[in-house]
Design a protein that fits this description.
145 residues, alpha+beta, SH3 type barrels, 2 domains, 5 strands
Length: 145
């Protein structure tokens, strides 16, 4: 089909022009950007391109097996005292680097101290709650103002 043949049946309407009986014809022409014989894409056409997983859950299982679980190591007495002093010296707004144990291993978080809760023994960095018992080290990077 040549390019001229595909677009010859398009309905073009002059702006402001009104001919009697052509309003419904013009309204139908506006809704159709291409001639009917060219067709419209089927609304479910994208479904044929959806990924197919023959083994459901296989990749999650492999990722779980690849994960190396790091054991939690309790602090020695002198390390615990130094950590207590470091936590006692923290103030709201200090930017700190905190190493703590979470689920399968140690994690490092850098951020501003939101709260040091001595009653519940939690350290809040940005919006993350870290129990004192899971903290390995705390280093102040920038003191708060």
């Amino acid at each position: 089909m040549a390019r001229g043949d595909a677009f010859e049946d398009l309905v073009w309407e002059e702006v402001g022009g009104s001919a009697p009986g052509s309003l419904s014809e013009a309204a139908q022409g506006i809704d159709r950007p291409v001639p009917e014989r060219v067709g419209r894409p089927h609304p479910d056409r994208a479904r044929q391109f959806m990924p197919f997983a023959a083994l459901r859950g296989y990749y999650e299982l492999v990722r779980d097996k690849e994960r190396v679980i790091e054991p939690w190591v309790p602090l020695a007495d002198d390390e615990a005292r130094a950590l207590d002093e470091a936590i006692a010296g923290l103030a709201r707004g200090d930017v700190v680097r905190c190493v703590f144990y979470e689920r399968d291993g140690y994690r490092t978080l850098v951020g501003a101290v939101g709260q040091v809760d001595l009653i519940y023994r939690d350290l809040w960095i940005v919006r993350e709650r870290i129990p004192f018992s899971r903290i390995r080290s705390v280093d102040v990077l920038y003191p708060g103002g």
